[in-house]
Specification:
There is one protein chain. The chain is α/β, with parallel strands linked by helices. The chain has a single domain, classed as Rossmann fold (3-Layer(aba) Sandwich), CATH 3.40.50. The chain is built from five helices and five strands. A five-stranded parallel β-sheet has the order 3-2-1-4-5, sandwiched between helices. The longest helix is centred in the middle third of the chain and has 31 residues. It starts with a strand and ends with a strand. Bound molecules: adenosine-5'-triphosphate and magnesium ion. Adenosine-5'-triphosphate binds next to α1, β2, β4 and α5.
Length: about 160
């Protein structure tokens, strides 16, 4: 297959699952290909107070940082184990390598764009929509990724 490093951004939605399914159909039989299943945990999901620690004089700063670390740790842990389950199901039928990762970034779009450039990604396969409740053609993350990466992006229902 032409594509060797395929990114599937994963937000726990059915749309993202079908993106993984399509990616497997495209490169699953290629032992030289890698599918990167990646969840971006946006820093905005955590409170600003916990992030800043409240400032230099703040006696609660240290404990806030500790709390931030443990919240982040458990979010990343949950995301990773969820993806591991998905990968277990997919591995039986796939010859390609499948990697799972959960990373922190200012926003999903920035995290995905950064992952694309730092991991030599040559194709992104993602849902047209995700967990958001709004109806419409395209979610904001898909829209932002289409605008910000240079590699081909396949959006799926
Ligand atoms: P919105 O978030 O704008 O309300 P939505 O949730 O319906 O709309 P998007 O968030 O754009 O739509 O989701 C489209 C696709 O983007 C998902 O199917 C998934 O592939 C990817 N995606 C969305 N959020 C994340 C995330 N935090 N990490 C990784 N991938 C994501
Ligand atoms: Mg969304």
């Amino acid at each position: 297959m032409f594509f060797k490093n395929v990114l599937v951004p994963y937000d726990e939605s059915e749309h993202a699952r079908s993106a993984l399914h399509i990616a497997l159909g495209m490169v699953g039989a290629d032992a030289d290909a890698t599918i990167h299943l990646v969840t971006i945990v946006p820093t905005g999901a955590l409170s600003t107070a916990a992030l800043t620690g409240g400032g230099f004089d703040d006696p609660f700063a240290a404990s806030d940082f500790a709390e931030y670390d443990s919240i982040l740790g458990s979010i990343l842990h949950r995301a990773r184990s969820d993806m591991e389950g998905l990968i277990e199901d997919a591995r039986d039928e796939a010859a390609c390598t499948i990697k799972a990762n959960a990373i922190v970034a200012p926003s999903p779009v920035e995290g995905i764009a950064e992952y694309v450039s730092s991991h030599d990604i040559d194709l992104v396969v993602m849902g047209r929509r995700g967990l958001g409740a709004l109806r419409g053609m395209l979610g904001s993350v898909s829209f932002g990724v289409l605008r910000s990466v240079e590699v081909p992006v396949l959006t799926v229902k």
